[in-house]
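#struct-pred
JK: can someone run the complex with zinc ion? inputs below
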Amino acid sequence: MSNWEETRRLVLERDGYQCVSCSTKLSSTGADVHHLLPRSMGGSDELTNLVTLCDGCHAAHHPNLAGASRAGFPCGQSLAANRSR
Ligand SMILES: [Zn+2]
Ligand SMILES: [Zn+2]
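RT: done, structure tokens with the ligand placed:
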């Protein structure tokens, strides 16, 4: 199926490589992609469910991940976990 790297790039391009919350310009490696509806709640990896956020805004959406959330990490899943799908 679609791989996360590709999906992520499409989201960043759609949003113009800037945070949809604070409009900060982001690099492709510094941007986070956030799920509007968390995957744990049945959210999909479709573009309509994904938005570009900077690290700070993304952390604000995930109080539990503050500090652990690194730039470039997909929302609610690790790159390793994604690879195993
Ligand atoms: Zn932001
Ligand atoms: Zn997120």
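RT: quick notes.
The two ends are 9 Å apart (CA to CA).
The pocket of zinc ion (ligand 2) is lined by residues 34-35, 58, 61-62, 75 (CB under 6 Å).
JK: thanks, will look after standup
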